[in-house]
Design goal:
The structure holds 2 protein chains of 2 kinds.
Chain A lengths: L3 H32 L18 H4 L32
Chain B lengths: L7 H24 L16 H23 L6 H32 L8 H20 L5 H16 L1 H11 L17 H54 L28
Helix pairs in contact in B: 1-7, 2-3, 2-5, 2-7, 3-4, 3-5, 3-7, 4-5, 4-6
């Protein structure tokens, strides 16, 4: 294999495939940690509550609903659910 | 740590892929004879066509999985996972095809890229399937997302047969099929090329098995993540909620009764 183009072609193909393998491995480990698989390293304590939309919690949805700071606002005025402190009087 | 996406099948396939790939590199890189016309550049034929073929296979499986998902009798999340996983592996092989083809083009034609029908259609194929993968990342309810992704995969697949037939339908710089209507190579060159198809097929299968396992983990994470987040928000609501004076005599339940939706309210 003396030709530089041939060598480059082989190396490029190997690089693409190996990089994808590394990506798969990294992603698999991250998901295993997040799901708490046995043998996986513990995940850092990160709150996922902000990722939850208002519909998951049954919060007020509609044009008059207040936009809360902790929820994902959506068209139509959806916001995080009104807790006791925010309940309209 | 053991890979969470590994299985017995993936380990066997991976080992076979390693052995056959090593054989292809030795045979293709040193043992097989150079070509009369292309000289040592012919050695790229042991990489580039196999990558292109499994790129088509990946997109074909994606279309097949999508079709099975859209068909009411066979509708299952498994088909959607197969469609997504094979499209992603197909994209990886498509990138490999374009890079190795570009290197071969530079050596044979003197340019890294030309707007030849085959090259342009392969680039278009990569672009449309990247779009498909982006669509899979879009939000929404899983079933409706799977449906629109299945339709998109079928539309994207239209490019595959056009790309494959580009060298016959149009006058292109790209050479025609080496193994197709006729076989243009013989002896050790042919055997090495066939072995390269076996080798890349095993690599493709190995990646697909891992990607399918990953897709299953992602689905679990999506469903369990929402459940965990809801539980966390409920717990936050219970801890942070001050008890109104009226509720001293009639305290609110610690958790809402089963079957009712939680709204974070404490009834006085």
């Amino acid at each position: 294999m003396t030709n530089a183009y041939v060598l480059s072609g082989y190396l490029a193909a190997a690089a693409v495939l190996v990089l994808y393998c590394v990506h798969l491995r990294h992603r698999g480990r991250a998901l295993a940690r997040a799901l708490g698989h046995p043998g996986a390293h513990p995940a850092p304590a990160v709150s996922v509550s902000s990722a939850v939309g208002p519909d998951d919690l049954g919060g007020p949805v509609g044009p008059g609903a207040p936009a809360g700071p902790g929820g994902a606002s959506r068209p139509g005025g959806a916001s995080r659910p009104a807790g006791p402190l925010e309940r309209p009087q | 740590m053991r890979s969470p996406t590994a299985s017995r099948a993936s380990r066997i396939v991976g080992l076979a892929a390693l052995v056959t790939t090593a054989a292809v590199v030795v045979l293709g890189g040193w043992v097989s004879p150079p070509d009369e016309v292309q000289g040592p550049l012919v050695r790229l034929i042991y990489v580039h066509p196999a990558l292109a073929t499994y790129c088509y296979v990946g997109f074909g499986l994606s279309a097949l999985g999508s079709l099975a998902y859209l068909w009411p009798r066979t509708r299952s999340r498994r088909w959607d996972r197969l469609a997504g996983a094979s499209a992603e592996v197909g994209v990886v092989f498509c990138v490999g095809t374009l890079i190795t083809g570009s290197i071969w083009g530079r050596a044979s034609w003197g340019v890294w890229w030309t707007w030849d029908a085959r090259l342009t259609l392969t680039a278009l194929l990569l672009a449309v399937f990247l779009g498909y993968l982006a669509l899979r990342r879009s939000g929404g309810e899983p079933d409706s997302r799977a449906k629109r992704c299945a339709v998109a995969a079928l539309l994207c697949f239209i490019v595959v047969p056009i790309d494959h037939e580009a060298t016959s339908w149009w006058s292109t710089l790209h050479q025609g099929d080496t193994i197709g209507k006729g076989i243009l190579i013989h002896g050790l060159q042919l055997e090495t090329m066939l072995l390269s198809f076996v080798s890349f097929g095993l690599i493709f299968t190995w990646m697909l098995l891992h990607r399918l396992a990953l897709e299953t983990l992602e689905d679990r994470f999506e469903s369990e993540g929402v459940v965990a987040a809801i539980a966390e928000r409920r717990a936050e609501g219970r801890v942070k909620a001050p008890v109104p004076p009226a509720s001293v005599s009639a305290p609110a339940p610690a958790s809402p009764p089963a079957g009712t939706s939680y709204r974070g309210e404490v009834k006085p």
